[in-house]
Amino acid sequence: MGTTASRSSPAVKNTRIVTVPVAKYLEMTTVDTIDFCGNLWHVNVHPMGHLVCVMVTCVDKQDPYSASATDVSIEILDETGQHTMFHSEYGHMLVNMREMEASSCVDGDGALTVRWTLSVNQQSIEWPLGNLSASKVEPVDLEPAMVGNCTFTTNSFSKLKATLRSFECAYSKPFSVGGIVWFLKIYPNGYRPDEERMSMLLVHEDEDHEERVSVLLVRDDDDQPQRATTAQFNFEFDGVANYESIKMTHTFNDANYEVEYKLPPVNTAAEHDPLIIRCRLTVIGIETPSLLSSML
C-alpha cells in the first residue's frame, strides 16, 4: 500500500518519463505506477497491430477530491527526448506505429519515450481544507515572437514513402510563433480529407494509385478553442525536390486549423534521395475577442 499524501499540501504536479519497449509487448502492459495526491495511477500500453494505445488511469481512488480534479497529459517524444511529437490531454492516446517511426519516435530496439504528467486543476474543486497551495503566480505579459521557421529532414524519401501507407504521415518537430504551437505533417503518398478518404474506401480505389506529396501546416489547437490567427508562410524544398513556393496567406480557426500544399511530382529514381522541407511563417493577425464574447 502506498502512503497517502497530506490533504493540506499534496503535490500539485508530477511529470515522469518512461522508455517503453513496445515491440516486445504482445498484450496490455503496465509500464509505470505512481501515487499522486493519495491515489494510485497506472500507465498502460496496449499494442494492437500497427496501432499502439497509451492510457493513464486511476486504479485506486483513496482521495476522490483530487482524483476528480486531476488532469492527465500524455506525450510521445522523439528519439532525442527533447521534442513532443504526439500528445493528448484526454488520458489516452491511439497512435500509428508507422507514423511514429517516420517521425523519429522509435529507436533501433522498437522503444518509445513517453512523458506523462498529472496535475491538479485547483479551479475545478473546492477543497475541504482550503486550496492546495497558498502561493499565487502573477501572470507575466511577454510579447511572443511573430516570426519563426521549422525544418523537416529525411535522409531517404523513398524509404519514408515505403514506410507509410496511403494517407499516413510523418510529423515535424513543433515550433512556436505568435504564442501558438505549429507543426508540419508530410504525406509522401498523398493526402485527402476524411470524407474523401471514406468515399475511396467505399469504391475500393487502388491504394497504389500515384498521389502527389502533400505538406500540411497545422496550428496545434490542443483540443481547446482558439482565436482566429492569420499567418503568411512559404515552403522551401531541397533534395529530391528543389524549389521555393510563393508566399501564401491563410486564416486559421477552430474549423479550419490546417492548410495543404501539394508538391509537383517528386523524382525518387536517384540512389541518394534526401528531402528537406523548410517552412517560414509570420503571424500577421490574431483575432481580438469582442467585449460581448469576453463577457459570455
From TrEMBL:
Tell me the leader sequence span. none
Q: Which SUPFAM superfamilies match?
A: TRAF domain-like
Entry-linked InterPro entries: BPM1-6, MATH/TRAF_dom, TRAF-like
Biological processes per GO annotation: protein ubiquitination
Gene3D superfamilies to which the protein is assigned, alphabetical: Apoptosis, Tumor Necrosis Factor Receptor Associated Protein 2, Chain A
Question: Where would I find the MATH domain in this sequence?
Answer: 147-263
Give the coiled coil ranges: none
**CDD domains recorded:** MATH (cd00121)
Q: State the protein's name.
A: MATH domain-containing protein
